[in-house]
Amino acid sequence: MKVLLLNTYARGGAAVACLRLKDALEQAGVDAKILSADQAGSRWPFYAERLSFLPFERDKSVRFSFSLANFGKNLLRHPLVQEADVLHLHWINQGFLSLQGIQELSLLGKPMVWTLHDMWTFTGGCHYSRGCDHFQECCGHCPYLKNPSPNDLSHRIWARKQHLFQKYSIYNL
């Protein structure tokens, strides 16, 4: 069995957990590899992702606390993705995987596992809700945004995730 672990960065908390899992899988006889954003090519999706959030951010303090997942790398033809039997997502934000990229990976028909290192997967874009519980019903009125409203950016992203993840059985809430 070949397992590919996907994580945006080679360093940081999620990367440490990802590397420990890779080592444990290898000790159990599994062929495990890690693919990070830097190994997957250009950094332009990172910059595009960050720049696209600037018009919405409340202030600089939230710049890296919210991910839209509009931009990402196309990994479908990457050799490690092609040869993997299982895809294991870890922290995949900041231009590594877009929501469309996650959908496309799911359409490969390979089992996907997702280890959650923060709350992003089930919120409207924030990595940590900081006490906001809007994601439990439907995001909106987001404290990270310059102009919070019922149908703000967080609500629209939350709705996209609900549709995408349920339609493609990535997870069901």
Topology:
Blueprint: E1 2-6, H1 13-27, E2 31-35, H2 44-53, H3 79-83, E3 86-89, H4 99-106, E4 112-114, H5 153-167
Describe it.
With 173 residues, the protein is of the alpha/beta class. It contains five helices and four strands. It has helices spanning 13-27, 44-53, 79-83, 99-106, 153-167; strands at 2-6, 31-35, 86-89, 112-114. It has a four-stranded parallel sheet.
Kindly report the average pLDDT value. Answer: 94
> Structural class, from helix and strand content?
alpha/beta
What's the Cα radius of gyration? 16 Å
Helix run count:
5
Write the element-wise H/E pattern from the N-terminal end onward. Answer: EHEHHEHEH
What summary fits the major beta sheet? 4 strands, parallel
Question: Which percent range describes the beta-strand content?
Answer: 5-15%
